[in-house]
Amino acid sequence: MPNRRISADRRALYYVGMIVSGLGLLSFLSTFVTFLSHFGDFSNFEANARSGGFRAFGGIVGLMIGGFLMNVGARGAAGAGLKLDPEQARRDVEPWSRMAGGMASDALDEAGVDLNRLGAGRDSDLPFDEKLRRLYALYRDGLLTRAEYEREKQDLLDKH
Predict the structure, then answer these.
(1) CA-to-CA distance for 90 and 87, rounded, in angstroms?
(2) Would you call 2 helix, strand, or coil by DSSP?
(3) Alpha-carbon dihedral angle through residues 86, 89, 95, 98, given to the nearest 10 degrees
(4) Residue 153: HSE in the Cβ half-sphere, 13 Å Cα cutoff
(5) Is 84 helix (H, G, I), strand (E, B) or coil?
(6) Which residues are CB-contacts of 96 (< 8 A; sequence separation ≥ 6)?
(7) How far is CA 62 from the centre of its chain?
(8) Residues sharing a CB contact under 8 Å with residue 66, sequence separation 6 or more, in sequence order
C-alpha cells in the first residue's frame, strides 16, 4: 500500500531542523549587527572579535545541522542518503513524488492538456506482453494503486 503520509517523527525532525537553522541564522546575522553597532569603537577589540567569530562560526554550524535535520525529516533516512537502500528511499520520498505528480497533473488539467489523448496510440505498437510488463512496473514502483493496476490490466486483457 502506498505511503501517502509523513510520519510524526519525521515531521518533528523537520521542524526541529527548521528551529536549529533559524537559531543558526540569527546567531550568524547577530555578528553583523554587533559589528555595525560597535563600528569605530576599538575598545576591547580582541574580546569582541572572538565573540563575533564564535557566533558566526556557531551560526554557520547551526545552519548546516538544521539543514541536515530538515533533509532527513523531509526525505527520511534512506531518501537523504543515510541508508543505502533504494527501495526504502523510494518509500521515503513517495509522498513528495505523489504530491509533485499531483501538482503537474493539476497544472496540465488547468491548461486543458489531456494526457490520455496524447498517449493514445503511442504504445499501441508494443507487443501485448510488453504492455503488461510496463503496467506491472508502474504498479511495482508505486505509481499505480492496486485498484488502478487491476483496472488497467483488465482493460488490456479485454482489448487483447
Answers:
(1) 5
(2) coil
(3) -30
(4) 16
(5) coil
(6) 74, 75
(7) 21
(8) 17, 18, 19, 20, 21, 22, 23, 24
**CA 15 to CA 46: how far, in whole Å?**
37
Q: Where are the domains of the chain?
A: 1-113, 115-160
What cell was used for 154?
483488465
Residue with cell 533504494: 86
pLDDT digits over 92-128, tens only? 777 766 666 666 666 677 777 766 665 555 556 788 8
Looking at residue 1, its pLDDT comes to 47
Is the pTM of the predicted complex or chain greater than 0.90? no
Show the cell assigned to 90. 523510494
Q: Residue 143 corresponds to which cell in the numbers above?
A: 505509481
Given CA atoms 100, 103, 107, 108 in this order, what sign does their dihedral have? Answer: positive
In the structure grid, which three cell numbers stand for residue 127, read together? 507487443
